[in-house]
Amino acid sequence: MITGKGRTACQGVAIGTILEIEAPTVSDLSNDAYMSVEQELELLQEGLACAATELEELAAKTREQVGEDEAEILEMQRMMLDDPDICDAIIAKIKKGAISASKAAIEVGIEQAREFEALDDQYMRERAADVKDVTSRISRAILGTNVVTLTEPSIIVADDLTPSQTVAFDRKLILGFVLRKGTMNSHASILARTMNIPSLINTELPDEPLNGRILALDTEAQTFYLDPDSETIEHIMEAKDRFYARQMQLLKLRGKETVAPCGHRVKAFANIGRPDDVEAVLENDAEGIGLYRSEFLYIGKETYPSEEEQYRAYAKVASTMNGKLVIIRTLDIGADKVAHYFNLPEEENPALGMRAIRICLTRPEIFKTQLRALYRAAARGNIAIMLPMITSVDEVLKAKAICAEVEQELKNEGIEYKVPSLGIMIETPAAAILSDRLAKVVDFFSVGTNDLLQYTCAIDRQNQTLGDFYDPHHPALLEFLRIIAKNAHDNGIWVGICGELGGDLELTDTFIEYGYDELSVSPSAVLPLREKVLKSKAQCKNILSSK
Ligand code: PEP
Ligand code: MG
C-alpha cells in the first residue's frame, strides 16, 4: 500500500478502480493531421458508428429523464447520420483533397447549415442547428475528444484536467478525482465541487502505471491510499459512514430560511456549469442559481452552439427551478476555458487577453445569438443575465445597446421574449473601484472572487507552485468586498458573491457584516452555508434591506 497527501478540492470519501487519463493540450484537441484518403475514410466510418451509438444512448437517457419531444430531436439526429446528403458530401470532400475526416465533417456541416439557414421555412431553418450538431459530433468522435467513456464506476487519476474534460464525464460513474497538480480555484476544482465529486489535488501519486489498481481517498484526512490493505478499507468504510451521517444531518436544514441571529437575511444560491447540475441544486434546497457558467455550452464542441440549443438549455434550467431566480452569465470563454473554433489569437497572457465580454463586444454576432436565446428563455422562467470581466461603465453601456438591438429584433420577428434583469460580475480591480458608478447602470452585482483575487494580487489562480503567496483572505480583497457592498447598497441594488470565497465559512460573518444579500456556492455547500448563517455571531450595525 502507498499512502500520500493532497489538498481537498471537494469533500468526500471514495474507493474504487483507477482510470488514468492524460490531460489533452489545446493542440491535442485540434490534432487532426491528414493521413491518407483510405485512412481518413476508415476513420469516418468509425466516427459515424461511434456517433450513432452515442445518439442512441443519449436518446434513451433523454426519454427517461427529460421527455419525449427532446428524445425525438436526438432520434432525428441519429437518422441524419444515415442521410446520404451528409455522408456522401463528407466522403466526396475526403476523396477530393488532402483534408482530414474530422475537418471534412465540420466543413460539410457549415455548408449544409448555410443552405438550410437561407430557406424561408422556419422549420427547415431550425434544421441548420441539427446539421451542425450532428457533423460536429461525428468530428469529435473521429478525433476521440468525446467523453472519456467510463464503463464502470472509477476514480479518475490525471496530472490535471481541463474544464472541458471535467464536465464531459458521466457524473454517475465518477467516484472521485485524484490529481497530481491543480489549484483550489482552477475550473477543474470548481467543477468537481459543483458536481460534488470527492477530490484531492496536488497529490504525490507515484509516476507508474496506475490503471485498474484500487485507490481510496479520504478528504477529511487529506490522504489517498493506493492498493489499500484490508485494515485501510475498513477505515475508509467508517469514514464513508461518518460523511454520510453528516450529509443526513445537513438535509434537515432544507426548507429553512437562511437568516442570521442578528436579523440579516442571506440568500443561499448555488453555482452550476451544466443543466444537469440543477438536480443537485434542488436536492440541496438552494434558493436560486447565482451563477450558471454558460461557457460550458461552448467548450468541448467543434462549433458554436446554436440559438435553439442554448434556448433549450436555459429554458430547461429556468423551468426546472420553477420561479426561483436563475442568473445566467454570458459566455466567459478565454484564459483556461478554451473553445478552439473561436480562433482566438495566441496570447502571451491569456488571463489578461481576449476573454469574456471582450469577445462579445468585438464579435457581436456571437453575443447576439446568446442574448436572443436568453431573452426567449426569460419568457419561460425567472432569468437574469450577468456580464463577466467588466472593467468600465462604457463596456456595460455597449453591452446594453446590443441587448436593446436584440430586443427590437425579437419584437419585429414576433418571437416571444421577456427582458431579463441585468447584472455584472465584479471580478476586476477596475470594476471594484468603479463600483459606485457601475451600480447606477445595472440591477445587481455578483463578486467573482476567484478572478478578483487573481487580478488584485497579481497572482495566477492556476499556478499551484505559489503556495502561501496565494492568500484568499488577503486584506486587499476583503477591503474591496466591503467597498463593493457599500457602493451597491448606496445605489439601491443588491449584491452577492459567486466566487469560491462565498462558501468559505470562516468569512461568513464578515460577509454578513458587510451586508451581502446573496452567497452563491457549489450545490453541496449550500446547506453548510445555511447552517453557518443560522449560528452566525455577526453583529450587523445596519440591517440593509435584501431584495
Ligand atoms: C470568479 O472569477 O470568481 C468567477 C465566479 O468566475 P470564474 O471562476 O468562472 O472565472
Ligand atoms: Mg471569473
TrEMBL record:
Catalytic activity, as annotated: L-histidyl-[protein] + phosphoenolpyruvate = N(pros)-phospho-L-histidyl-[protein] + pyruvate
Taxonomic superkingdom: Bacteria
SUPFAM superfamilies: Enzyme I of the PEP:sugar phosphotransferase system HPr-binding (sub)domain (SSF47831), Phosphoenolpyruvate/pyruvate domain (SSF51621), Phosphohistidine domain (SSF52009)
Enzyme Commission identifier(s): 2.7.3.9
Domain annotation PEP-utilising enzyme mobile: ranges: 151-219
Subcellular location(s) per record: Cytoplasm
Binding site for phosphoenolpyruvate: R293, R329, N450, D451, R461
Active site: H187 (tele-phosphohistidine intermediate), C498 (proton donor)
Pfam families noted in UniProt: PEP-utilisers_N, PEP-utilizers, PEP-utilizers_C
Cofactor needs: Mg(2+)
Keyword terms: Coiled coil, Cytoplasm, Kinase, Magnesium, Metal-binding, Phosphotransferase system, Pyruvate, Sugar transport, Transferase, Transport
Domain Phosphotransferase system enzyme I N-terminal intervals: 5-127
Domain PEP-utilising enzyme C-terminal: 253-535
Task performed by this protein: General (non sugar-specific) component of the phosphoenolpyruvate-dependent sugar phosphotransferase system (sugar PTS). This major carbohydrate active-transport system catalyzes the phosphorylation of incoming sugar substrates concomitantly with their translocation across the cell membrane. Enzyme I transfers the phosphoryl group from phosphoenolpyruvate (PEP) to the phosphoryl carrier protein (HPr).
Family membership noted in the UniProt record: Belongs to the PEP-utilizing enzyme family.
Protein name per its UniProtKB record: Phosphoenolpyruvate-protein phosphotransferase
Taxonomic classification: Bacteria, Pseudomonadati, Pseudomonadota, Gammaproteobacteria, Aeromonadales
